[in-house]
């Protein structure tokens, strides 16, 4: 099957969601009280031991899917421990043999709910040098605004994690909304079209093969 079969995003939104500011502001002032799921606590504790034992910096690759991006980031940053997190065991189990740990990088793949994992990482004072959110599900229907990371109650914890945050999507409104949400926290940044000779995730490869544009923001939090 060809990679060039990615459907265009269809949304009933022509621009930023009209309630975005209200939603983000509410989440920035409210306390997130949802209990931490036991399986994520266990997964986090295991990774946290490795993070504490590791002498160098860490990078987070959130919504890592099959972990191809995690492996590629580890090759680019050989002195860093890259942690790829995804909620789907089905996706993580597809992590190809060719992406298994090599001398050219160190990485861990974790199955966990990011709504819990990010909060635990903030509580343990993790300080990633970089945090990648590469092609998270854009939830393009207007009614699903609170399923997008910038519209979710967890959003303030993405900001608290700090580091150099990079968000990419094939839907410009998603990245523009994310940038607006960051602006509401005092972090203004630009959204630009993104092109590269090398795709680092399967989605990126698929979008580009289908002649879809990627968009990204990069900001030091």
Topology record:
Blueprint: H1 20-29, H2 38-53, E1 58-62, H3 68-76, E2 81-86, H4 89-92, E3 106-111, H5 114-123, E4 130-134, H6 155-161, E5 164-169, H7 172-183, E6 192-194, H8 202-209, E7 214-220
Parallel strand pairs: 1-2, 1-4, 2-3, 4-5
Antiparallel strand pairs: 5-7, 6-7
CATH secondary-structure class: Alpha Beta
Query: What is the topology, as strand order, of the major beta sheet?
Result: 3-2-1-4-5-7-6
What name does the CATH topology carry?
Rossmann fold
Quote the average pLDDT: 91
Order of helices and strands: HHEHEHEHEHEHEHE
What would you call the structural class? alpha/beta
Radius of gyration: 17 Å
Globally, the shape reads: globular
Strand content: 15-25%
The percentage helix is: 25-40%
- CATH architectural group: 3-Layer(aba) Sandwich
At the fourth CATH level, what is the homologous superfamily?
A: Vaccinia Virus protein VP39
The major sheet is characterized as: 7 strands, mixed
Low-confidence stretches: none
Number of DSSP-assigned strands: 7
Number of helices: 8
Brief account:
By secondary structure, this protein is of the alpha/beta class.
Describe the structure.
The protein has 8 helices and 7 strands; from the N terminus they run ααβαβαβαβαβαβαβ. It has 221 residues and is α/β, with parallel strands linked by helices. The chain has a single domain (20-220), classed as Vaccinia Virus protein VP39 (Rossmann fold). A 7-stranded mixed beta sheet has the order 3-2-1-4-5-7-6, sandwiched between helices.
């Amino acid at each position: 099957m060809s990679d060039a079969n990615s459907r265009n995003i269809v949304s009933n939104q022509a621009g930023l969601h009209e309630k975005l500011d209200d939603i983000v502001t509410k989440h920035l002032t409210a306390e997130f009280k949802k209990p931490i799921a036991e399986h994520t606590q266990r997964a986090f504790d295991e990774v946290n031991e490795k993070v504490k034992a590791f002498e160098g910096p860490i990078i987070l690759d959130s919504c890592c899917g099959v972990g191809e991006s995690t492996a590629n980031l580890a090759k680019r940053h050989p002195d860093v421990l890259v942690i790829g997190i995804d909620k789907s065991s089905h996706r993580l189990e597809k992590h190809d043999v060719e992406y298994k740990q090599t001398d050219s990088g160190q990485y861990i793949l974790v199955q966990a709910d990011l709504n819990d994992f990010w909060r635990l990482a903030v509580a343990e004072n993790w300080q990633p040098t970089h945090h990648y959110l590469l092609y998270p599900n854009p939830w393009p229907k207007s009614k699903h605004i609170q399923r997008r990371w910038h519209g979710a109650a967890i959003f303030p914890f993405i900001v608290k994690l700090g580091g150099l945050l990079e968000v990419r999507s094939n839907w410009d409104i998603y990245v523009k909304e994310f940038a607006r949400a960051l602006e509401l926290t005092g972090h203004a940044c630009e959204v630009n079209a993104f092109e590269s000779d090398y795709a680092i995730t399967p989605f990126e490869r698929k979008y580009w093969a289908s002649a879809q544009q990627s968009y990204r923001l990069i900001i030091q939090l």
